Amino acid sequence: MKRRDWIYLGVTLAVLFAAVGLLYPFWPFNRVIKLGLDLQGGVRLVLQAQGLEEMTQAQRNDVVDRLVTIFAERVDQYGLANAEIRPMGQDRVEVRIPGAADPEQARELLGRTAILEFRKVLDEAPNPDDLAAKRVIPQEILPGKEPNRYYLVEGDPLLTGEVLDNAEVRVSTDPRQPGLYILLTFNRAGAEKFVEALRRLQVNDRLGIILDGVVYSAPAISSSIKEAAAQGWRAVQNSTTITGRFSYEEAKLLVAVLRSGALPTRVTVLEEQRIGPTLGAEYVRRGGLALLVSLVLVTLYMLLYYRWYGVIAALHLILTMLIVLAALRVFNATLTLPGIGGLMLTIGMAVDANVLIYERIKEERRAGKNLTASITAGFHRALSAITDSNITTIIAALILFLLGSGPVEGFAITLGLGVAASMFSALVFTRLLLEHTVLGERVPVKLLPTSK
Fold first, then answer.
1. DSSP string spanning 89-128?
2. β-pair partners for 390
3. Which CATH superfamily does the domain covering 3-33+276-441 fall into?
4. Are the beta carbons of 150 and 144 closer than 8 angstroms?
5. Dihedrals φ, ψ of 124, to 5°?
6. Between the CA of residue 295 and those of 6, 242, 273, 277, what are the distances in Å?
7. Residue 246 dihedral angles phi and psi, to the nearest 5°
8. Residues 94, 99, 101, 107: is their CA dihedral positive or negative?
9. What is the SS3 assignment for 125-140?
10. Which of 22, 45, 55, 436 could bond to 59 as cystine, CB 3.0-4.6 Å?
């Protein structure tokens, strides 16, 4: 073997072992390859930003970009994996959350404005009409988290959620108030503002903790809190809590929206789609079956027509599929139903390179060249056709990926990766098998008898 062949062999083995290692243990498939919404099931939402009519194009783009960032942070904080969040048009954002089961939960997570305020509570009543006579502008009457509870609060907040550094779900150890609560941690600037607010309040004054216009709790200012405020900002940095008889999911969601910050504008849900996991599993089964049938039929045709050379084509297809799936894993790409279509197309295009090489080798053998010269010349003559066709396909896939979205993008990813993988398999792996194994000696062509 020449030095080039040893290099080819080393690269092929490295790629093969790397692909197998990345895909191990191969099953369950959804833990090996990230599946899209159509294959895994989940929730798709399209949200529209409100109040952008009078903004410039640059301001609109900035608002949409901020929405994408905040949505991504909320989904990450809540623990939903593999979400796809992207701008759609000038004022919309598309959110795909594979594996999510509850559209209402997703809507609450993404659509909540998360405006956190601390205001002084002036009075409390079970009916808002009881507070209306006491209200003066700019005071407000706000509902409480618990039913039949309303609060009269000052109009100007003492503090807002912009100064939060963190929020955590905690379990109460107080037998008088069992359950979950949310511990708030201020950054230094926020803690200093909180100290100033506490110094303005008197003992037994009530401080309302308000999220999106709802009073979650209204604790009374105790003398111990006043004393802590006198010691400086560090003493009150993580001493504020939100209570409200939360379930774990409610507390977890509230923490996610508080950590990510408030939305820059109000949003409404324009489209909502839920795909059940049963339907997604059926798509996976059917897509996998279609992929397997395509692989078997193409392999069978190559075996019948090219005989032993068909074995090389089958090995070439297997290596190509391993490389594509491993590449999806490396790039953390999402496999969708159109992506499976791209893999099926890859199977047909992959053997196209084999057909070109085999036919050129057959022509050289018919012309009377020996086996080695025929294989070398066959690859040389087929190279330009293989590279031209595959490179143009990769360019088309790249354009689809850059300009398309959703299903089109999924198709483009697998098609582009498949074509690149098939080029490597054809020009490196197939050549090694043809030049250095007994399979390469069995050229599927009848040689004309030589005249004496």
1. TTTEEEEEEET---HHHHHHHHH----EEEEEEEEEESST
2. none
3. Multidrug efflux transporter AcrB transmembrane domain (1.20.1640.10)
4. yes
5. -145, 145
6. 30, 58, 33, 27
7. -80, 145
8. negative
9. ECCCHHHHCCCCCCCE
10. 55
Q: What is the CB neighbour count within 10 angstroms for residue 298?
A: 19
Cα–Cα nearest to 92, from 226, 350, 268: 268
CB 22 within 8 A of CB 330: yes
Report d(CA 167, CA 180) in Å as an integer.
13
- Among candidates 238, 395, 428, 228, which has minimal Cα distance to 323? 428
The one-digit pLDDT tens for each residue of the chain (452 residues) are 678 778 878 888 888 888 888 887 777 666 777 777 777 777 888 999 888 888 888 888 888 888 888 888 888 877 776 678 888 888 899 888 877 767 787 888 888 777 888 899 999 999 888 899 888 888 999 998 888 889 999 988 888 888 888 888 888 877 777 788 888 888 888 888 888 888 888 888 888 888 888 888 888 888 888 888 888 888 888 877 877 677 888 788 888 888 777 788 888 888 888 776 666 677 777 877 888 888 888 888 888 888 888 888 888 888 988 888 888 888 877 777 788 888 888 888 788 888 888 888 888 787 777 777 888 887 888 888 888 888 888 898 888 888 776 667 778 888 888 888 888 888 888 888 887 777 766 766 665 555 44
CB environment 41-79: b (16+ within 10 A), e (fewer): bbbbbbbbbeebeebeeeebeebbeebbebbebbbebbe
**Residue type (1 letter), 92:** R
**Which CATH class name applies to 116-244?**
alpha beta
Domain 42-111+270-275, CATH number (from 3.30.70.3400, 1.10.340.30, 2.60.120.620, 1.25.40.10): 3.30.70.3400
Q: 394 near 419, Cβ under 8 Å?
A: yes
